[in-house]
Design brief:
By secondary structure, the chain is α/β, with parallel strands linked by helices. The protein folds into 2 domains: 3-142 and 308-330, Rossmann fold, CATH 3.40.50; 151-293, Rossmann fold (3-Layer(aba) Sandwich), CATH 3.40.50.10750. The chain has helices at 3-14, 26-37, 50-59, 79-91, 96-102, 106-115, 130-140, 182-199, 222-236, 251-255, 257-263, 281-293, 320-330, and strands at residues 16-19, 41-47, 68-71, 121-124, 151-157, 169-172, 205-210, 243-249, 275-277, 298-305, 311-313. The protein has a 6-stranded mixed beta sheet, with helices on both faces. A 5-stranded parallel beta sheet has the order 3-2-1-4-11, with helices on both faces. The longest helix is centred in the middle third of the chain and has 18 residues, at 182-199.
Length: 333
C-alpha cells in the first residue's frame, strides 16, 4: 500500500479547509503551499503580522499563492463562541479583558475559528508543545460527548522494503497520558480503532495490548491493568468481526509471526498486530521514537483523539511533509 497516496486521495475527496496556527514557521508555510498546490485542502494562516509571513515565505522560496493569510481579529469568529469562551474563562477567575487577550494568540484564535465552523480541522504543535495544544483545546473546543479520556495516536509508516511490516501501523498513546489505568487503556484502544477504520475502511483491526510479558510469562502487579484492559476490550468488541483484540503481548510476539506462534499459539492477533496499545507514556513515547529514528518509520502525529473537533498536536520534530500528511489525515471523517 502506498499510504501517502492513500491518505491524500481520501482527503482530497473531502474538499476541506485547514487552519495552521504556526504561520511563523517555515515548515508550516511549506506544508500550506503543498496542501493548496496539490488540491488537498484550502488553508488558513492566522497571524498578527501578515507582511512578516509573506516575507518569510519569499525568503524561503515558498509560493503561498492560493493560501489565505488572515490578520488575527475577532470579527472572523462567531460571537456566540467568543462569549462562551469568555464566560468559561471568567468562571475560572480570568477577567473578560484577559480572556479576550488570549484570543489574540494564534493557537487560541485558531481553535475558536474551528469551533466557529469556519474550517474543518486545526493542525498545530510544530512549535507549540503538547501541553500548550492540549490546554488550549480543552478550554476552547472541549471533549467529545461521552469521552472521559483524551489520548493520541501515531500513524507509523514503514520504510520501503521493511523486513517485518509492509503496511502502516498505529501506536497509542505515545503523547498524552502518563499512566492510564485499565479503563483508560480501554478508552485509548477504542478511540484508536475508530480512527483506524476511518483510515483503512474494510481492513481488519488487530489490537495488541502490550506488556513485558506474553500470556503470563511473568507475574507482576504491573500486568494486572493490561490484563484487565484486554478483557474489557474483548467484551466491548464482542460481535464485531472486523476487530480482534489480545493481550498481554510482548512487542515481538505482536508483530513477528514466528514469535507470535511460539509465544501465543492460540492468538488471532499475535504476529499480525496493526494497532499497538502501550501500557504507559514512558514505553509509548520511547517506542515510537525508536521506531522512527532507528527503524526508519515515518511517525505522523501525535493525532489527538477524544476532542469534540479535529485537532492535531504535531511533534516538534515534524518535517513539512509530516505536517502536510497529518493535515490530510485530520480531514478524514
Amino acid at each position: 500500500m502506498d499510504i501517502k497516496e492513500h491518505i491524500l486521495t481520501l482527503a482530497k475527496k473531502v474538499k476541506g479547509k485547514i487552519i495552521l496556527p504556526e504561520s511563523f514557521d517555515i515548515r508550516v508555510l511549506k506544508a500550506a503551499s503543498m496542501l493548496v498546490k496539490n488540491n488537498i485542502a484550502s488553508v488558513i494562516l492566522p497571524t498578527d503580522n501578515m507582511q512578516e509571513v509573506e516575507k518569510n515565505a519569499y525568503n524561503a522560496g515558498i509560493d503561498l499563492s492560493g493560501v489565505e493569510i488572515i490578520k488575527i481579529d475577532n470579527s472572523f469568529l462567531d460571537e456566540n463562541k467568543i462569549k462562551e469562551f469568555v464566560d468559561a474563562r471568567i468562571k475560572k477567575g480570568i477577567s473578560e479583558r484577559e480572556a479576550l487577550e488570549l484570543l489574540k494568540k494564534p493557537l487560541y484564535f485558531s481553535m475558536i475559528y474551528l469551533k466557529s465552523g469556519k474550517c474543518d480541522a486545526c493542525v498545530g504543535g510544530a512549535v507549540y508543545d503538547t501541553a500548550d495544544v492540549l490546554r488550549t483545546s480543552f478550554c476552547t473546543i472541549g471533549t467529545a460527548t461521552g469521552i472521559k479520556l483524551v489520548s493520541s495516536y501515531f500513524l507509523m509508516v514503514p520504510p520501503d522494503n521493511h523486513l517485518i511490516v509492509k503496511d502502516p501501523v498505529m501506536f497509542a498513546d505515545c503523547a498524552v497520558n502518563p499512566d492510564p489505568n485499565a479503563l483508560g487503556l480501554k478508552d485509548i484502544a477504542i478511540a484508536t480503532v475508530g480512527n483506524f477504520k476511518k483510515l483503512f475502511p474494510g481492513r481488519q483491526a488487530k489490537v495488541a495490548i502490550l506488556s513485558f510479558s506474553t500470556k503470563g510469562s511473568a507475574n507482576n502487579k504491573l500486568l494486572m491493568k493490561v490484563i484487565e484492559a484486554t478483557e474489557l476490550l474483548k467484551t466491548h468488541f464482542a460481535g464485531q468481526s472486523d476487530v480482534d483484540v489480545d493481550g498481554e503481548l510482548q512487542f515481538d510476539a505482536s508483530v513477528i509471526s514466528s514469535v507470535g506462534k511460539r509465544k501465543a499459539p492460540n492468538s488471532v492477533v499475535a504476529g499480525s498486530a496493526n494497532i499497538l496499545i502501550f501500557p504507559d507514556l514512558n514505553s509509548g513515547n520511547i517506542g515510537y521514537k525508536i521506531a522512527e529514528r532507528f527503524g526508519g518509520f515515518q511517525a505522523l502525529g501525535p493525532i489527538i483523539q477524544g476532542l469534540s473537533l479535529p485537532v492535531s498536536d504535531l511533534s516538534r520534530g515534524s518535517t513539512a511533509e509530516d505536517i502536510y500528511l497529518t493535515a490530510a489525515i485530520m480531514l478524514l471523517k
